[in-house]
UniProtKB/TrEMBL annotation, chain B:
This is L antigen family member 3. It comes from Folsomia candida (Springtail). Residues 91-111 are annotated as: Disordered. Belongs to the CTAG/PCC1 family. GO terms for biological process: tRNA processing; tRNA threonylcarbamoyladenosine metabolic process. InterPro entries: CTAG/Pcc1. It comes from the Eukaryota. It is found in: Cytoplasm; Nucleus. Signal peptide: none annotated. Component of the EKC/KEOPS complex that is required for the formation of a threonylcarbamoyl group on adenosine at position 37 (t(6)A37) in tRNAs that read codons beginning with adenine. The complex is probably involved in the transfer of the threonylcarbamoyl moiety of threonylcarbamoyl-AMP (TC-AMP) to the N6 group of A37. LAGE3 functions as a dimerization module for the complex. Keywords: Cytoplasm, Nucleus, tRNA processing. Residues 95-111 have a biased composition (Basic and acidic residues).
């Protein structure tokens, strides 16, 4: 029986979660939300996390009704992500690991998403579509590694959506992607946008440049609702195509969507349509686990800890902005 | 702090802790992260008695300012974490007396 605490802060969400034997005891989160038209920068995001982390840690422990002595392992996000926010969280993780005299595990953020998705949905060996503001990857497990089958060759799909929301000056509360989704539901006119799929990979920066440059002229003919609708249809279709290509390659009958963009119901709807055509099954989690959270770090960290993968020696408890999903040896899986 | 046109700028800060144990905890939490790639500041951290000592060497005062500001942000975070989550203090509903920390912190670190 393992009780793990996970600390996550690689982007603008700060989350601390506690898991006991696979059961989520607490998973509070706070989000650094910037004014409409603005994105979040590393130093101010780090300052937000620093200001919130002590209270959030206390809240997480109180909600879980555990004592620090009962926690077996301290898990934190090693990367990938933004440097300053990552370090701010790691500093606290290192401190409680010493205060409570517990082992520490540095977790890959992407693997946190995957392991939580598998755990919550019960998907056995899915083709994973990991889509967020910082990452866009199509992943399949093979021989102790989460292999990246396809990915964005420039920006993440969530980054494309977020930056488009800035052009429209949409609110970032609760997230720009959520507000794009709500507007898109009322869109009527479809604008054909650049559709860029390159084999197994996707590209969004050309599409973003197009819509950024033409925004002013487009606004005369299309409403913000139409533009949001058109953007989603284009980017999501690209993701469905590349996910299907990976499934065809591996013969997979399961799809798991993880990451903040995975909350989007239109994406889920389109993916489900493709899955039904292939008699495959779609798995997705709700916003508690799609969006960055601490429990997912605790879940992956707990698997690692049980398999003997503690971060050691102490110098290894650093953070890194670049951390490929396939760099981690998935020791805890036996398939 | 010294800053000379042809010499690097240096900053040395001595931070007393209530105990050597706490100084060592802070040292461990703070020594792992390297300075950001673009920073030209060299940071050295070590513990003497119950004090954490940080030495920064950089090309100018501005670089030291940036580096030390970040360092102090993280140091504050470590201190708050120790204050709140030490096993003997955590969960206590009694008001803690601050005198102990204050008296200990006034002890000189260097002879």
């Amino acid at each position: 029986m393992v009780i793990a605490i996970g600390l996550e802060g690689s982007a603008n969400k700060l989350g601390i979660g506690i898991i006991k034997d696979g059961q989520v005891l607490s998973n509070p989160r706070v989000t650094y939300i910037t004014p409409p038209g603005e994105g979040f920068l590393p130093s101010e995001t780090a300052r937000h996390h620093q200001a919130e982390i002590i209270n959030l840690l206390e809240k997480s422990i109180k909600e879980a009704k555990v004592r620090p002595e009962e926690i077996d392992v301290i898990c934190y996000t090693k990367g990938p992500g933004m440097g300053a926010p990552l370090v701010s969280v790691a500093v606290v993780a290192r401190t409680i690991a010493q205060l409570w005299k517990k082992p520490i595990v540095g977790v890959n953020h992407c693997i946190g998403h995957i392991e939580m998705g598998r755990h919550i949905t019960g998907a056995k060996d899915p083709t994973v579509l990991y889509v967020s503001g910082g990452n866009t990857q199509i992943i399949a497990y093979s021989q102790k590694r989460y292999r990246i089958f396809g990915e964005t060759i420039d920006i993440a799909v969530g980054n494309c959506l977020d930056r488009f929301a800035r052009i429209l000056k949409l609110s970032n509360d609760p997230s720009p992607g959520y507000n794009i989704e709500q507007l898109a539901k009322r869109g009527k006119k479809l604008l054909a946008l650049p559709y860029v799929v390159k084999g197994m990979d996707v590209s969004f920066s050309g599409l973003l440049s197009f819509i950024e440059e033409k925004a002013e002229t487009l606004k005369r003919e299309y409403t913000p609702e139409d533009l949001c609708f058109s953007l989603q249809e284009a980017v999501f279709a690209m993701l469905v195509e590349t996910t299907e290509r990976a499934m065809a390659h591996t013969g997979s009958q399961e799809v798991l969507i993880v990451g903040g963009v995975g909350c989007n119901e239109r994406l889920q709807e389109m993916m489900n349509r493709m899955c039904e055509e292939r008699q495959a099954k779609l798995f997705a989690t709700d916003e508690r686990f799609c969006i960055d959270n601490g429990a997912m770090i605790a879940q992956a960290g707990s698997e690692m800890y049980s398999a003997g993968m503690v971060t050691s020696p102490w110098e290894e408890t650093f953070c890194t902005q670049r951390y490929r999903t396939d760099e981690v040896e998935v020791v805890w899986r036996n398939d | 702090m010294t800053s000379h046109p042809h010499e690097p700028a240096q900053l040395r800060v001595v931070i007393p802790f209530p105990s050597k144990e706490q100084a060592l905890i802070a040292h461990n939490s703070l020594r792992v992260d390297r300075e950001p790639k673009r920073s030209q500041v060299q940071k050295t951290l070590f513990v003497e008695k119950h004090c954490l000592i940080v030495e920064l060497v950089g090309p100018d005062a501005r670089s030291l300012r940036l580096s030390s500001n970040t360092f102090f942000d993280h140091l504050t975070l470590v201190q708050k974490t120790i204050d709140k989550f030490s096993l003997d203090k955590f969960g206590s509903s009694e008001p803690r007396t601050e005198d102990f920390d204050g008296i200990e912190a006034k002890k000189p670190c260097l002879n």
